[in-house]
Amino acid sequence: MTQSYEVIFENNRKWVESKLSQDADFFKKLTKAQTPEYLYIGSADSRVTAEEIMGARPGEVFVHRSIANVVNTLDMNSTAVIQYAVEHLKVKHIIVCGHYHCDGVKAAMAPQDFGLLNPWLRNIRDVYRLHQTELDAISNEDKRYDRLVELNVLEQCINVTKMACVQERYILEEYPVVHGWVFDLRTGKIIDLEIDFKKVLKDIQKIYNLTESDWMMSRKK
User: Fold this and answer.
1) What is the pLDDT of residue 73?
2) Where does Zn(2+) bind (predicted)?
3) pLDDT tens-digit map of 149-198
4) Would you say 101 is a known binding-site residue?
5) pTM for this prediction
6) How many structural domains are present in the chain?
7) Angle subtended by helix axes 76-87 and 164-173, to nearest 10
8) Fewer CB in 10 Å around end: N or C, the chain?
């Protein structure tokens, strides 16, 4: 094994020792059922780790990561994670977090063939198409990238809201609430895009309302 690989296990050993020195029952507690209040959907970028930027401890955040924090409803991975978090873990907040200097967003803006990545990046290109007038009016390329990052977060929040499990539980319990964040690599700060979830839900209801089934009506009663 290379030295860089071996150091991972050394770091793990030190981490275990550190946790046990602070709490001898740390790992016993960790085996208990998880009850996170947050589902974090973020980028797979190695520079952005959910628990670290949130200051969260193990068990507090359920995490899903993908290239450019895309929530594609044809992707069984993301849909399964969301449904499990909403129906079984009963999370109260779903956070979609993008980040500035996102390689996936930059790749989507490049006129280049990325092979197997093309279908995935097309989701972000679709975001550009939806907001082309606004984005093309931004002359500064870096600022245009930043704005596309924000708009991509907004559209992925809408994709989450389209899901039946999210709509149904919110109608019954007023949770979960969907939030859009951007992590700024330049400052280390989380920026809340202050998405009005109730308004988003109302705006898409006519087209994406999935709550009028007999099963849903019986639960209302």
Assistant:
1) 86
2) 45, 99, 102
3) 999 999 999 999 999 999 999 999 999 999 999 999 999 999 999 999 98
4) no
5) 0.90
6) 1
7) 20
8) C
Q: Strand locations in the chain, DSSP E?
A: 38-43, 61-66, 93-99, 177-183, 190-192
Domain coverage including residue 69: 32-220
Note the pLDDT of residue 212: 64
Cα separation, 130 vs 128, in Å, equals: 5
Neighbours of 147 (CB within 10 A): 16
Report the candidate in 176, 197, 156 with the shortest Cα–Cα distance to residue 88: 176
Pairing of β 190-192 and β 177-183: antiparallel
Residue 45, marked binder:
yes
Mean pLDDT taken over the chain: 92
Q: What is the CATH number of the domain that holds 97?
A: 3.40.1050.10
Integer Cα distance of 160 and 168 in angstroms: 12
- pLDDT band per the 50, 70, 90 thresholds, residue 4: confident
Mean pLDDT of 105-117: 91
- pLDDT tens digit sequence for 52-72: 999 999 999 999 999 999 999
143 within domain boundaries = yes
Residue 10 lies in a domain: no
Q: Is 214 annotated as a binding residue?
A: no
Distance CA 68, CA 50 (A): 14
Whether 48 is covered by a domain: the verdict is yes
- The long-range contacts involving 75-79, CB below 8 angstroms and separated by at least 24 positions, are 78/41, 79/163
Question: What is the DSSP annotation of 57-87?
Answer: PTTSEEEEEEGGG---TT-HHHHHHHHHHHH
Residue 63 lies in a domain: yes
